[in-house]
Amino acid sequence: MVIRCVLYRATHAGITLLRERQKRCSRIWRMIHHCSALVYREHSHDINTVRMEQVLMPPVGDGGVRVHMLAAPVNPADINMIQGTYPILCPLPAVGGNEGVAEVVEVGSDVTTLRPGDWVVPIDAGFGTWRTGAVCEEDDLIPVSKDISLLGAATVFVNPCTAYRMLHDFQTLSPGCTVIQNGSNSAVGQAVIQIAAALGLKTINIIRDRPNCAVLIEELRSMGADYVITEEEVMSSGLHQIFEEVPKPKLGLNCVGGLSGGLVLSNLDSGGTMVTYGGMAKRPLQIPAKSFIFQNITLKGFWLTQWKRNHRNDKAQLKIMLDSVCDLMRGGHLSATHCIQTPFHQYTRALQATVQSYGCKHVLIM
Fold first, then answer.
1. 33-40 and 51-57 as β-strands: parallel, antiparallel, unpaired?
2. pLDDT category of residue 286 using cuts at 50, 70 and 90
3. pLDDT > 70? residue 359
4. Please, is 147 exposed, middle or buried when counting C-beta atoms within 10 Å of its C-beta (0-12, 13-18, 19+)?
5. Which residues are within 8 A (CB) of 140 and not within 5 positions of it... i.e. 6 or more apart?
6. With 80 as the cut, is the pLDDT of residue 15 above it?
7. Is 227 noted as a catalytic residue in this protein?
8. Exactly one of 86, 227, 277, 347 is catalytic; which is it?
């Protein structure tokens, strides 16, 4: 009888121990998550080197956050990073994508600013948004309003914020002032038009001539553009008639460079500032000495990534900017750039279109 009791207790203890181990294994297994990610293992101009892989995600630490990516655009800068030509490069192998919106799924015990269900966007470039999920630190993310559209949230923190900063940081502008820009049909250019209109500013928008020029001009005017003129028209006729109606611009925005950048520069008012934030023409600016000597023109550069890094420890500043842009979207003053929504598994279509500079931005939908 004693022997049976001992055997029973030993067997019962063994079963209990086995069940506890199974529970622990089950808990550990539940903490292990995988995601699908677009990974590149070398820098190459061949976009086919980007492959979809299954990537293991680490467990969420006390200060960590696990998110499910909802949507992520494909931008030219993303392609440049894959090619190895962008000013910042991620350690290889790397997941592509710098911008996007995600939903918080799980938070660590020390996380105070985020909770499951929140929409968030990554603060810094190089986050790797082309994946279905990610685990990161609380400080890597900033919440974004859920009462704007999904596409708006996915594309809000780069191009619209670039336009917002340039219109606020380089010249003191009041309603009735004029801004001149090239590349006006770009995502930043369209945001400049809409934000400027909301601020009561006039815009002169230079575009390249093209077969569908009349359609583009009408589209930009419908966004709030006051004047839309081709580079050829500026070179042949100048802007004298326009300057009879509005003051010469104190702020010029240049994302093209070369001859087009010179057209912006030469039409600035004395004491004006030209901000360069891109160089699509891949040609240097030709700057006449008289612009410095007689007109006291200031040349500046702007890169939103660097601005964010400079203010990374001041989330209040980041939040003010993001909330201001979201308010414009919510109020109908700023619309998301027209996008082609691409299912995540059809990513090659979106990447190829961006490489070949097709008109519309592609957004991967997870």
1. antiparallel
2. confident
3. no
4. exposed
5. 65, 122, 123, 124, 127
6. no
7. no
8. 86
